[in-house]
Amino acid sequence: ATVFYALLDTETGTVRFTNAGHEFPFLLTDGSASLIEESGMVLGCLEDFDYLECECRIPPGGALVIYTDGVTDSESRAGDYYGAARLRSALERHGALSARDMCRRLIEDVRAFGDGENQDDLTAVVLKRLP
Fold first, then answer.
1. What is the rounded distance in angstroms from the CA atom of residue 106 to the CA atom of residue 84?
2. Per-residue pLDDT tens over the stretch 12-30
3. How far from 108 is each of 1, 70, 124, CA to CA, in Å?
4. In angstroms, what CA-CA distances link 90 with 33, 60, 96, 102?
5. Three-state secondary structure call for residue 20
């Protein structure tokens, strides 16, 4: 099992997190999305694994986007994967929207890419900081 565990300080936008083998989240700042490539072992593989606590800051108007692999692994009829590059592009296009609308548009984009078929779960969590 993978886990992304985070604590958000709503005053400062600081997010302290541990990633246990989950997809890398995206941080949106000034209309640009970048991967936070911090991760540890998936749960249950090693008995005594020390997970790192990492930190990032969501700037005013920015967002942290956490998602399941069903988003990036969604496959078109032609056999192409949605992938992280398409996800980055979608997030940058929809980054000005509210968290709810960004989530909705992202799921719509993935479903349209897969011709309306869901091969796996499609889950996204958007933590957006007000400007």
1. 12
2. 999 999 999 899 999 999 9
3. 26, 13, 12
4. 9, 20, 11, 9
5. strand
Structure token digits, residue 99: 């968290």
Q: Which of 99, 7, 5 shows the shortest CA–CA distance to 57?
A: 7
pLDDT tens digits, 109-120: 999 998 766 667
pTM > 0.85: yes
Question: Residue 71: is its pLDDT beyond 80?
Answer: yes
Handedness of CA 31, 15, 5, 49 (dihedral sign): positive
Separation between Cα atoms, residue 112 and residue 117, nearest integer Å:
8
Element (H, E) at 101: helix 99-113
Write the secondary structure of 30-49 as one string of H (helix), E (strand) and C (coil).
CCEEEECCCCECCCCCCCCC
- pLDDT value for 87: 97
